[in-house]
């Protein structure tokens, strides 16, 4: 809901419609207050008194309750980051969000040093998160952008209009769980624990290219939303075409570079305990290169709340990767699992690129690009 409302707010401000943006913002606030408040009321007694299948001390129960509140505060605090994104302060909002997470970590370390208990760690981290959330709310309010904290302008129809894209956003973490954790479990089941260590090490190195491309594409998120709100597909067309090309070139070039430096990286990172396997590294670098190619198109769909169709395909691709991983893994062991990852990634990349360019089919110039 935070992402869906943030996109709508950004697009509304792109049209210079502050009243609509404020109505969306306050509707999202009402939704988050109801959901987070209800969950807080529900999970507190469960954490403190519900019977659990293992022995849990009071210290651990208090820590569990504090961690629940920490998560709920983080979710609600996402509204502040949405305001920064919508008001062309994306860099400030991102830096503040990272500082809050850093402060949360520092609070947990302080709790460990002072109290030496689970509850001390969790409560101090919660206090740091609460302080950061308050700071985010206050800083987000600064400036005359027409967005105000409160619920007086909240609209039930606005909330309803955001439910579908909000639910669709939840599909992507599930798809990632299938593609990442699912393949790790599969590698362990088919090849053993020692091979899992090799597989995850190689995949981590290969995905450096994906992470760097993701940094580039996420910086485009507010710009895509603002331009789309300002003038529709035609307004965002030029930026998207150049960014998609640059993102693809960047992903492929970084993957090629990693191929040549990966033997050295493995030597330094693992102290020579994991040897360089040319074939496995090629499979995973090809998978990472394809993964980076569809990052910018995916961000366009997500930034404009047109990701609903992609969400279903992403879940399907996650399931496909596990199914192909099992079939290929039985035949070709770890190389087969890597090949399955490449095929499923190519499938979802093709779907995503098609859906992204489909937005522009009304533009004759971009029709030529697609052709």
Automatic annotation (TrEMBL):
Keyword annotations of the record: Cell membrane, Membrane, Transmembrane, Transmembrane helix
Membrane topology: Multi-pass membrane protein
Keyword Metal-binding in annotation: no
Keyword Transmembrane: yes
InterPro entries in alphabetical order: Poly_Biosynth_Transport
Subcellular location, principal: membrane
Subcellular location: Cell membrane
Annotated transmembrane regions: 30-50, 62-84, 105-128, 178-199, 244-266, 278-296, 308-331, 337-357
Name of the protein described by the UniProt record: Polysaccharide biosynthesis protein
Species the sequence originates in: Methylocapsa polymorpha
């Amino acid at each position: 809901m935070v992402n869906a409302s943030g996109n709508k707010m950004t697009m509304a401000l792109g049209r210079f419609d502050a009243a609509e943006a404020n109505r969306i913002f306050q509707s999202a606030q009402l939704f988050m207050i109801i959901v987070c408040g209800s969950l807080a009321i529900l999970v507190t007694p469960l954490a403190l008194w519900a019977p659990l299948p293992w022995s849990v001390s009071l210290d651990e129960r208090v820590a569990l309750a504090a961690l629940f509140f920490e998560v709920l505060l983080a979710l609600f605090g996402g509204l502040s980051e949405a305001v920064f994104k919508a008001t062309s302060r994306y860099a400030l909002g991102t830096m503040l969000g990272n500082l809050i997470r850093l402060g949360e970590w520092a609070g947990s370390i302080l709790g460990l040093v002072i109290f030496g208990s689970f509850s001390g760690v969790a409560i101090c981290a919660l206090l740091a998160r609460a302080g950061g959330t308050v700071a985010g709310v206050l800083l987000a309010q600064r400036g005359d952008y027409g967005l105000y904290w409160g619920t007086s302008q909240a609209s039930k129809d606005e909330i309803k209009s955001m439910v579908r894209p909000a639910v669709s956003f939840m599909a992507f973490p599930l798809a990632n769980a299938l593609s990442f954790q699912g393949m790790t479990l599969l590698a362990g089941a088919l090849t053993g624990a020692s091979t899992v260590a090799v597989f995850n090490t190689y995949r981590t190195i290969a995905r450096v290219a994906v992470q760097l491309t993701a940094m580039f594409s996420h910086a485009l998120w507010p710009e895509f939303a603002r331009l789309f709100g300002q003038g529709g597909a035609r307004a965002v067309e030029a930026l998207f075409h150049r960014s998609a090309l640059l993102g693809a070139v960047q992903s492929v070039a970084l993957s090629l570079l990693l191929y040549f430096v990966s033997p050295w990286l493995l030597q330094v990172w693992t102290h020579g305990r994991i040897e360089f396997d040319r074939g496995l590294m090629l499979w995973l670098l090809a998978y990472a290169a394809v993964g980076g190619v569809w990052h910018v198109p995916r961000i366009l769909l997500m930034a404009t709340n047109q990701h609903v169709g992609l969400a279903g395909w992403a879940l399907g691709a996650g399931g496909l990767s596990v199914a192909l991983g099992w079939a290929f893994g039985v035949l070709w062991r770890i190389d087969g699992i890597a090949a399955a990852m490449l095929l499923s990634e190519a499938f979802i990349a093709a779907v995503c690129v098609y859906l992204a360019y489909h937005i522009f089919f009304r533009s004759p110039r971009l029709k030529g690009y697609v052709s």
